[in-house]
Amino acid sequence: MAEHLTLLGIESSCDDTAAAVVRGNTVLSSVVYGQTSLHAAFGGVVPEIAARAHAEKLDHCIEEALAKAGLSLSALDGIAVTAGPGLIGGVLSGVMCAKGLSAATGLPLIGVNHLAGHALTPRLTDQTPYPYLMLLVSGGHCQFLIVEAHDSYQRIGGTIDDAPGEAFDKTARLLGLPQPGGPSVEKAAQSGDPARFTLPRPLLNQPGCDMSFSGLKTAILRARDGVVAESGGLTRQDQADLSAGFQAAVTDVLIEKTRRALVQYLAMNPEKRSFAIAGGVAANGVIRDGLMALCAGLDTDFIAPPLHLCTDNAAMIAYAGIERMSHGEIDDLTLSARPRWPLDQRAAPMLGSGKKGAKA
Ligand code: KG4
Ligand code: ZN
Q: Residue ranges of the domains in the chain?
């Protein structure tokens, strides 16, 4: 049944306004309007600016997605929308828009958890069978999830403070490198010496799969201040060495914690040897290569969806909606927007709040 369903997906939980049309496993269109330039002057996402931009852009974005798919609303089977977690103003913009469309057309409305969208992407792109282990690693999220079914997830670890993408962005800011920080720190690191500065590997020696990245950012601040105090400023080589040191520390933590998460997962599922990544940090070549090598050593398939489906997009929301709808799960106009919405209801709540809003 799922392969016949055609859904519009709507995503507005952070700083990307996105709409997509997906039929079964085929992405017919996927449109993303970013907001980076709107927030650039503020050093982070401003929730009110994001919400207003979503409200202004959603109609155009949806029209473009339908036009690119060559379909009208009447050709759809339903409308899937991110109902959380995220910045509440943005989530509300999307949910209200989807409700309006559903009320006007009579199409079923399906609320989707943004994290489920990321977590189910390997099924959209690679038809990965359940279960599999996922590392979701972005500017707002960092968690290990055992994806057991479209509505069943086990979180076996995650960050207790900042997400790695957030740490990359803050490090870039401290070093005077452009935003988004991930790509600029990765580029600078290519000509850097990762051993010049001694940086911590937080929680590396603690048991379990939890991670911490905020101390690393503070260590970079201290190291930078030390260089500035000594020589009056940062040279290009200082930037490169600090970037390389930071990236090596994040990579060491992510690889070792992923190794533990995989060993734990494989002990429970020795026949289902699949590991997938999602989120913007998955674009990092050094981190990706490290994870790939780790999987090869543990005889596990490494699934990395194409980058435009790893970062925030609405195709993953439409696809997660298809999985829900094919199980008869449909919402009505009482669907509410949720700032926090953990995928694993049994896991202990995560602390803190990232640049992209509440951590789920
Ligand atoms: O998934 P995403 O587009 O948005 C959310 O955070 O939800 O991820 C964006 C994050 C940013 O923090 C960005 O700096 C980081 O992903 N990122 C990277 C790289 N490319 C993007 N981090 C490390 N290395 C990269 N090459
Ligand atoms: Zn996301």
A: 2-126+310-341, 132-307
